[in-house]
Amino acid sequence: MTLSTFRTPVEQRYFEDYEEGAVYEFGEEAVEEEEMVSFARRYDPQVFHTDPAEAAKTTFGGLVASGWYTGALAMRMVVDHFVSHVASLGSPGVDDVRWPKPVRPGDRLSVRVRVLEARRSRTKPDRGIVRSLVEVLNQDREVVMSWKGMGILRCRDASPSA
What is the CATH number of domain 10-31+70-154? Predict the structure, then answer.
């Protein structure tokens, strides 16, 4: 796999800067047990996320992060490094969210994004649609979470022939 580099910084990036087939890797975020457990106690209070002693008795054999916590950490990296800071018009949603491996305290996560499709809107030529596969990797480069997302971005040049 060949990694790509954006030619335009995230603060100046528009639809035209997202190339179909490009693959980007970025970020590193340490999974801190206290923050992980605090998140789970508030939003996903299952014992394998919140209680080390009870988590040891589960199929996981110890604490694991809520998938939603993993997603929150990943989303921060995606926003910091991939999503345009000037042209993003949001996202109508994500598909195919998966958590193939557990995330544990002390893991170090990074993100890989592959642009699956980049096309100008047929009905609104001032914007484009970028579909991406987002994979969250642990320190061993194993995929621990993935999703397919769609972003809508303003075009630098609003003419359809650009």
Answer: 3.10.129.10
